[in-house]
Amino acid sequence: MILSIRPDLTSADQRLSSLVVEEQQTVTEAEMMQAVRTLLIGLGEDPDREGLKDTPKRLMKALQFLTKGYHESLDELLNGAVFTEDAHEMVLVRDIDIFSSCEHHILPIIGRAHVAYIPNGKVIGLSKIARICEMYARRLQVQERLTAQIADALQGLLKPQGVAVVIEATHMCMVMRGVQKPGSWTVTSAMRGVFAEDERTRQEFMNLVRHNSNFG
Ligand SMILES: Nc1nc2c(ncn2[C@@H]2O[C@H](COP(=O)(O)OP(=O)(O)OP(=O)(O)O)[C@@H](O)[C@H]2O)c(=O)[nH]1
Ligand SMILES: [Zn+2]
């Protein structure tokens, strides 16, 4: 099946979406569950014991949930919530919980996103900023790409003066396995427009992100 061209997706997104759709056409849920069963046997387990007998289905469903962002689009999640408004000051939504999955190990990336933009005649429903984060987080990701995708989506939708996205996150693949560094966390940023060009605007954003809120 060829996906129709969706203007809300970047070309990389389009390629990824069509790959996912193609895969889904050829792989049934029964085959996915069989693959988990094979995995369990490979790990030395008995997939027929009581505690594991529904695990292939549970894991498949869990992974489908954690990657549901492949089946969502900016258009749907926005639901038209872009409004004309004579606003020109920074809007920041802070401390948006992020639960993503790293594409290398399919292990959790857990963190928070801080997203700001400076309007240029259009504002977006605030919840939609969190929904955009959610859509891209619920895919197999690297933190850098997740950060950039959120920034580019807002830049494309609103044509604002600028967008800034910072994500701070810990990667379970670095905590529970591999190098095993539980205290480590990674900060990534994507600056667009005036945030990339103007040091003072970027600084104002970083100060607001660092500021300890009474609500937190
Ligand atoms: N840049 C980037 N790297 C990531 C992210 N998530 C996981 N990684 C890294 O991806 C790399 C994969 O490296 P490999 O050597 O192929 O895999 P590995 O043998 O499992 O690596 P170790 O984790 O070092 O044991 C690791 O260094 C991970 O820390 C991410 O969001 N961004
Ligand atoms: Zn990983």
UniProtKB/TrEMBL annotation:
Q: Name one Pfam family in it.
A: GTP_cyclohydroI
Any idea of its EC number?
Answer: 3.5.4.16
Any idea which GO molecular function terms this record carries?
A: GTP binding; GTP cyclohydrolase I activity; zinc ion binding
Name the domain of life this protein comes from: Bacteria
Keywords attached to this Swiss-Prot or TrEMBL record, sorted alphabetically, are: GTP-binding, Hydrolase, Metal-binding, Nucleotide-binding, One-carbon metabolism, Zinc
One cellular component term from this protein's GO annotations in UniProt: cytoplasm
Family matches, as SUPFAM superfamilies: Tetrahydrobiopterin biosynthesis enzymes-like
Give GO terms for biological process.
one-carbon metabolic process; tetrahydrobiopterin biosynthetic process; tetrahydrofolate biosynthetic process
Q: Which PROSITE patterns match?
A: GTP_CYCLOHYDROL_1_1, GTP_CYCLOHYDROL_1_2
Q: Which residues are recorded as binding Zn(2+)?
A: 102, 105, 173
InterPro entries registered for this protein in UniProt: GTP-CH-I_C/QueF (IPR043133), GTP-CH-I_N (IPR043134), GTP_CycHdrlase_I (IPR001474), GTP_CycHdrlase_I_CS (IPR018234), GTP_CycHdrlase_I_dom (IPR020602)
Recorded catalytic reaction(s): these are:
GTP + H2O = 7,8-dihydroneopterin 3'-triphosphate + formate + H(+)
Can the keyword Zinc be found in this entry's annotation? yes
**Which residue ranges does the record assign to the GTP cyclohydrolase I domain?**
33-209
Which Gene3D superfamilies has this protein been placed in?
1.10.286.10, 3.30.1130.10
Pathway this chain belongs to:
Cofactor biosynthesis; 7,8-dihydroneopterin triphosphate biosynthesis; 7,8-dihydroneopterin triphosphate from GTP: step 1/1
- Broadest EC class assigned to this enzyme: hydrolase
Q: Which family does it belong to?
A: Belongs to the GTP cyclohydrolase I family.
PANTHER family xref list: GTP CYCLOHYDROLASE 1 (PTHR11109:SF7), GTP CYCLOHYDROLASE I (PTHR11109)
Known partners and oligomeric status: Homopolymer.
Please name the HAMAP family in this protein's record.
FolE
Q: What is this protein called?
A: GTP cyclohydrolase 1
Origin organism of this chain? Nostoc linckia z8
